[in-house]
UniProtKB/TrEMBL annotation, chain A:
CDD domains with a match to the protein in the record: TM_PBP2 (cd06261)
The species this protein was found in: Caproiciproducens faecalis
Descriptive protein name: ABC transporter permease
PANTHER family: OLIGOPEPTIDE TRANSPORT SYSTEM PERMEASE PROTEIN APPC, OLIGOPEPTIDE TRANSPORT SYSTEM PERMEASE PROTEIN OPPC
Record's subcellular location: Cell membrane
Lineage, highest ranks first: Bacteria, Bacillati, Bacillota, Clostridia, Eubacteriales
Keyword Glycosyltransferase listed: no
Kinase recorded as keyword: no
Coiled coil location: none
Automatic annotation (TrEMBL), chain B:
Domain ABC transporter positions: 7-257
Source organism per UniProt: Caproiciproducens faecalis
Main location: membrane
Organismal lineage: Bacteria, Bacillati, Bacillota, Clostridia, Eubacteriales
Protein name: ABC transporter ATP-binding protein
PANTHER family: DIPEPTIDE TRANSPORT ATP-BINDING PROTEIN DPPD, OLIGOPEPTIDE TRANSPORT ATP-BINDING PROTEIN APPD
Keyword annotations: ATP-binding, Cell membrane, Membrane, Nucleotide-binding, Transport
NCBIfam families: oligo_HPY
Places the protein is found: Cell membrane
GO MF terms, alphabetically ordered: ATP binding
UniProtKB/TrEMBL annotation, chain C:
The organism of origin for this protein: Caproiciproducens faecalis
UniProt keywords, alphabetically: Cell membrane, Membrane, Transmembrane, Transmembrane helix, Transport
Protein name: ABC transporter permease
Keyword Transmembrane helix applies: yes
InterPro entries the record matches: BPD_transp_1_N, MetI-like, MetI-like_sf
Length: 352, 336, 305
């Protein structure tokens, strides 16, 4: 046991009797390095801020939001405005009449992305298309969040027979092939909805949105919430076993209060992450449907329908597909990356 | 190194390189182990007791790295070994049992296939021989119907049974050293005793050495020849089991013993917990790591790490109180 | 096991029943019924047609008749393609879609599993970053964009590959590439995280301590565990391939069921839409049942009740 190093002469260290006096509690306190305590939220947000990819994605999202919701208000063209004589312009190209106008000293705003075959400015159409895509993503996710979390929380909280029946329903809806039902709904809801909108002036606003979009929302709120419901149920099931819920119950808190005050705040991270990741999925579906000609109705544009109508002239006007395609990919990509970042930030497993 | 020495660890340093900085999990640990000896390593979680032993198995989890020191096992320096040699050694000459038998077995393979894998890796036995030996091993660790057990999956076993399987697997090639990393922590109290008994019994049969890592002083007192007490990545006291239990010198060891209930003692003696929490290994203090929790803390303790003082042959402790005694003695000597 | 299979099939049947009801109800919501068309038809003819097809009866009787026919393998007739039954159309187009989809799923699985494992093993290195960039792009770019991009690049500009139809094996390259891109990217990401998860498990530590070689540790101990979550994705993957093939078949002009389905919708060929929906739905539901059963077989921990 010679292995343990033992300095034969400890007094080479220049010790004096002073050193062996008891240390005061102040001396000791200096050593107590307490790490700053942080709340779950603060901690998650801090991690999110450190995640460069997620922050970049967030900036892109903000940029796209401005692009889609703010700029169109100041833009000199309207999405459905057909400029005579300016058909099929390439990006930054001016038509004959526009050149004449410019020569006469008038200011003509350039068609940054060109125009389509009806003379509609593609720049504004892409912006409005992005707005529609974002709206679809946000509204559909909000519907999913609302329905899914309430359903899941109720099933998870009450458990037992209620849970079994509710989850069986979820299982069945889960195994319904969503795309087929969406397409079917699109087709069959079109005319009844149109009739409904025509009969009642209260729905005039909805008519502008178009039957296509309304059916997308209906489908999302009918089918897509099941994933969210499953996740929330799982969370609630594990949370309700925990002591603080038992404590709340012992203090006589009502079911509603427990759900509201204890369960939802604790699920919030999961809810945010799942909802964020639901957005690109909804945008994806809308683009797919619009591409097949089932989404928004002309003259309204969505990124999918812009891409779809670009297919016909693809060989000569490839940019008409490229621009909406890039915008849609950018939106989906940044929401996905931001969602991933949120998940990493909220996932306690990665907490060190 | 004496001829009877199996393992010699010198000034081992292991660090984890986390995003927050370098965490010095083990900072300068040295100990030896003789053939057939049982060494207990005691300490609270995070004291580096497992990490020091994992070095020997090459299973330090990412982002951990050995940053210094030497490990000599059975005459070979493992830091100089080639990967293939090292791999040959693991399992056959040193093997390990982990704390959690629930997760340490692969859930998608049968017990039999995981047991025979060990034999096929390290012996020249044929498939049939391996199977026969595996069945024999399962019998040896006290499983009934070992033939049937071979075909079952880990999830069909209870915690105690899984730990028996782990022991059977660890002992399959009759290793020279068994590292038992909290082998009983995850088990019921009644099963704990059975597993310990089984380990001691099998140790005698094949004359191996054991490093028993635990935070449970009750476990070490029964089984170990020697005990090393670790705190914050350092060994603070090492000695025979009797030295540690009846003549503890380091304040942490004393505190540790005071926080364990004693059955044989008369009357109601209150348990004395150790106040405070362990230090932040990201920014280890210059002095003794235990200083901030120590009731007898002196000024020097906060400034400088004490050296080991040998109390009796084989019993050493790193505490300034011991140095103080020597200092005072020397002072008296000078005065005379 | 048997009980589980029976239970699972019972659920599948319930789902199929539900889908058929939904489909039937939705088809009947369309004003004017299936005989609404651009051409003016005299009321008498419509009546006669209604009687002929049993559409004068109450809805539940109609549904009963329809289901009865379905169960006997009769999917009805097409309104637009005169003289062709839904059966004809399905049997002539479905094999094409199935072949295309099958090849795509195979390739997506093969590449996805490989790329995911490689990324996990090289975590944080350049190979991982590269694969993650590719797969992140893969789940962000809609299939119609991929399809047109591939078609423009390799078909129109470079003239390397044919872009229309499926006549030769060369014709398969672009549609298969498009169709497998998204699932490949998805599987890569899934495989990476599940492989990393598996590699962090205690049993991998045990394997290392046993002295198992790196190869065996990865391919024997980690892979088998990591692959379990992937199997759950194969069900939705089948569904995705179906929906993806709508786009791919439209763009590459492939005479498969997907293109047929889209044509039926835009041509308002409602009976065909209904038949195709039910056919595809039944197929997907049954495939999901199969995947579920496989899943239970691979993971011994799941008890079959």
């Amino acid at each position: 046991m010679e292995d343990i190093k033992f300095k034969k002469n400890p007094f080479s260290l220049q010790l004096n009797a002073e050193d062996f006096l008891p240390a005061s509690s102040e001396d000791k306190a200096q050593l107590e390095v307490m790490r700053e305590s942080t709340t779950y939220w603060k901690d998650a947000m801090q991690r999110l801020r450190k995640n460069k990819v997620a922050m970049a994605a967030m900036i892109v999202i903000l940029f796209v939001l401005i692009f889609a919701f703010v700029i169109p208000n100041f833009y000199p063209y309207q999405y459905d405005q057909q400029v005579r004589g300016s058909e099929d312009l390439t990006p930054m190209q001016y038509s004959q009449s526009e050149i004449q106008k410019m020569e006469a000293g008038e200011k003509v705003f350039p068609h940054i992305f060109g125009t389509d075959k009806f003379g509609r400015d593609l720049g504004i159409r892409v912006m409005v298309g992005a707005r529609i895509s974002l709206l679809v993503g946000l509204i559909a996710s909000a519907l999913v969040l609302l329905i899914g979390s309430i359903y899941g929380a109720v099933a998870g909280y009450f458990g037992g027979k209620v849970d079994i029946i509710m989850m069986r329903i979820v299982d069945i809806i889960y195994s319904i092939p969503d795309i087929l039902i969406i397409i079917l709904l699109q087709v069959s809801l079109k005319e009844p909805l149109n009739a409904l909108f025509a009969s009642n002036p209260a729905f005039a606003g909805l008519q502008k949105v178009g039957v296509g979009l309304i059916s997308i929302f209906i489908t999302f709120s009918m089918l897509y919430w099941v994933g969210m419901a499953r996740i929330v149920r799982g969370q609630v099931m594990s949370l309700k076993e925990q002591e603080f819920v038992t404590a709340a119950k012992a203090l006589g808190a009502s079911n509603g209060r427990i759900i509201q005050k204890h369960l939802i705040p604790n699920c919030i991270g999961t809810l945010i992450v799942t909802t964020t990741l639901q957005i690109p999925s909804a945008i994806f579906t809308e683009a797919f449907l619009s591409f097949l000609g089932l989404g928004v109705a002309a003259p309204m544009a969505s990124l999918g329908s812009l891409a779809s109508s670009a297919i016909d002239g693809i060989t000569s006007y490839a940019y008409r597909l490229t621009i909406p395609a890039i915008v849609i990919s950018l939106i989906i990509l940044s929401f996905n990356l931001f969602g991933d970042g949120l998940r990493d930030a909220f996932d306690p497993k990665l907490k060190k | 190194m004496s001829s009877n020495c199996l393992l010699d660890i010198e000034n081992l340093q292991v660090s984890f390189f986390t995003p927050a900085g370098e965490v010095k999990a083990v900072s300068g640990v040295s100990y030896t182990l003789d053939h057939g000896e049982v060494l207990g390593i005691v300490g609270e979680s995070g004291s580096g007791k497992s990490v020091s032993a994992y070095t020997l198995m090459g299973i330090i989890a990412d982002p951990g790295k050995v940053v210094g020191g030497t490990v000599e096992f059975n005459g070979h320096h493992i830091e100089k070994m080639k990967e293939k040699e090292f791999r040959k050694m693991r399992g056959s000459e040193v093997s390990i049992i982990f704390q959690d038998p629930m997760t340490s077995l692969n859930p998608v393979y049968t017990i039999g296939s995981q047991l025979t894998e060990m034999l096929r890796l390290h012996t020249d036995k044929s498939r049939a021989e391996c199977k026969a030996r595996a069945i024999e091993l399962l019998g040896l660790v006290g499983m009934n119907e070992p033939e049937k057990r071979m075909k079952q999956y880990p999830h069909e076993f209870s915690g105690g049974m899984r730990q028996r399987v782990m022991i059977a697997m660890a002992l399959a090639c009759e290793p020279k050293l068994l590292i038992a990393d909290e082998p009983t922590t995850a088990l019921d109290v009644t099963i704990q005793a059975q597993i310990l008994e089984l380990m001691v019994e099998l140790k005698k049969k094949i004359n191996m050495s054991i490093i028993l890592i635990t935070h449970d002083l009750g476990v070490v007192s029964d089984v170990c020849d020697r005990i090393a007490v670790m705190y914050a990545g350092k060994i603070v006291e090492i000695g025979s089991t009797d030295d540690i239990f009846y003549n503890p010198k380091h304040c942490y060891t004393v505190g540790l013993l005071n926080s364990v209930p004693k059955i044989h003692e008369q009357g109601h003696e209150r348990l004395i917990p150790i106040e405070g929490t362990t230090i932040d290994l990201l920014n280890p203090p210059a002095g003794c790591p235990f200083a901030s929790r120590c009731s007898q803390c002196m000024k020097i303790c906060l400034k400088q790490m004490p050296e080991f003082t040998e109390i009796s042959p084989g019993h050493k402790s790193a505490c300034w109180l011991l140095q103080k005694e020597q200092f005072e003695k020397a002072g008296e000597g000078n005065a005379q | 096991m048997t009980n589980y299979v029976i239970k699972r099939i019972a659920y599948a049947l319930l789902t199929i029943f539900l889908i058929s009801v939904i489909t039937f109800a939705l088809m009947n919501m369309i004003p004017g019924g299936p005989f609404l068309s651009e051409k003016a038809v005299s009321p008498a003819t419509t009546e006669a047609m209604k009687v002929k097809y049993g559409l004068d009866k109450p809805l539940y009787v109609q549904y009963g008749n329809y289901m009865n026919n379905l169960l006997h393998g009769d999917f009805g007739i097409s309104l637009k393609q005169k003289g062709r039954t839904a059966n004809d159309i399905i049997t002539s187009t479905f094999p094409i879609s199935a072949k295309l989809g099958g090849i795509s799923i195979f390739i997506a699985l093969f590449l996805g599993l490989t790329m995911g494992s490689v990324a996990a093993l090289n975590r944080g290195k350049w190979a991982d970053s590269l694969l993650m960039v590719i797969s992140t792009l893969g789940i962000a770019v809609p299939s119609f964009v991929v399809a047109t991009f591939l078609m423009m690049t390799f078909g129109v500009n470079l003239h390397w590959l044919p872009t229309m139809g499926l006549k030769t094996p060369l014709h398969y390259i672009l549609p298969v590439a498009t169709l497998s891109f998204y699932p490949m990217a998805y599987i890569t990401r899934l495989m990476r995280s599940s492989m990393l998860d598996a590699l962090n498990q205690d049993y991998i530590r045990t394997a290392k301590a046993k002295g198992v070689s790196k190869f065996s540790m990865l391919f024997k101990h980690a892979l088998r565990n990591a692959i379990i979550p992937i199997i759950t994705y194969v069900g939705p993957l089948l569904a995705y391939t179906v929906s993806g093939s709508f786009v791919v078949e439209k763009i590459f002009n492939i005479p498969g069921l997907g293109r047929e389905f889209i044509n039926c919708i835009s041509g308002r060929d409602y009976p065909m839409v209904m038949s195709t929906t039910i056919f595809l739905a039944v197929l997907l539901v049954l495939m999901n049942v199969l995947v579920d059963i496989c899943y239970k077989l691979v993971d011994p921990r799941i008890k079959l009740k």
